[in-house]
Amino acid sequence: MYYQLIQSPAGLILAAADDDALLALKFINPPADAIDYGWSEAPNHPILNKTKQQLMSYFAGKLNKFKLPIRFKGSNFQQAVWQELLKIPFGQLSNYQEIAHQVGRPKAVRAVGTAIGRNPIEIIVPCHRVIASNGSLGGYAPGPTYKKALLALEDHQF
Q1: 64 within domain boundaries
Q2: 132 Cβ partners below 8 Å, 6+ apart?
Q3: Any domain includes 41
Q4: In this structure, are 90 and 148 located in the same domain?
Q5: Read out DSSP for 17-82?
Q6: The pTM is what?
Q7: 94 & 120 share domain
Q8: What is the mean pLDDT of residues 102-124?
Q9: Where residue 107 sits, what CATH number does that domain have?
Q10: What is the dihedral of CA 43, 46, 48, 49, to 10 degrees?
C-alpha cells in the first residue's frame, strides 16, 4: 500500500492506494498515522498524483465529479451504502433514511449511519452530503468542522 499526504484548504488528507485503485482518503491529524500502518510514501504514484490533482481542482471550485479508480474493502452492506453515496450529486444532499431505503433496508437507519461513518474514501465518496432527516448537520467521522467546510464549498451553509 502506498500513500501521500495532501495539504488541502480543509486540512491534511491521507490518500492511500495500491497499484490499481484508491483505497483510502481521510482527513488526518497528526501525519504520523500513515507510518503506523507500515505503508510506503509514494510521491510519484500515478493514482495518488491524480487524486491530489482532482482534490485541488475540487477545492478550487473547478471540479464537481471525481474520476478515479476506487476500490472498497468492507462488508456487502457497507459497500452498498458507499455505492449509494457515490450517486449523490455535487451540491445535493441526502439523509440517512433515504440511503436506508435505497439499499433496501428502510429500518436500518442506524446501520447506515455506522457504515457511512466507516467510509474509507472521504470527499470522493461524499458522506459529507448526508444530513439528518430533520435537516440538521448530522455526524461526520472527521468532525463537524470538516463537514461544514465541504458543504460550504458546495454552497450549503449549516
Answers
A1: no
A2: 95, 96, 138
A3: yes
A4: yes
A5: E-SSSEEEEEE-SSTTHHHHTTPEE-TT-HHHHHHHHHHHHHHTT--SS----B---S-HHHHHHH
A6: 0.91
A7: yes
A8: 97
A9: 1.10.10.10
A10: 70
Integer CA distances (angstroms), 6 to 48, 49, 72, in order: 10, 10, 21
- Rounded alpha-carbon distances, angstroms, from residue 79 to 34, 102, 112, 115, 131: 23, 13, 11, 8, 19
Name the band, by pLDDT with cuts 50, 70 and 90, for residue 29.
confident
Q: Are residues 22 and 71 in contact, defined by beta-carbon separation less than 8 angstroms? A: yes
Q: Average per-residue pLDDT in the chain?
A: 93
pLDDT of residue 36: 65
Question: Is there a single domain that holds both residue 9 and residue 39?
Answer: yes
Decide if 69 is inside a domain.
Answer: no
Q: Which residue has the cell 450549503?
A: 156
Predicted confidence (pLDDT) at residue 11 exceeds the cutoff of 70: yes
- Of 127, 131, 151, 153, catalytic: 127
Catalytic residue check, 127: yes
* CA–CA gap between residue 66 and residue 50 (Å, rounded): 10
Structural domain that includes position 111: 76-153
In this prediction, residue 20 carries a pLDDT of 97
Is 117 within a domain?
yes
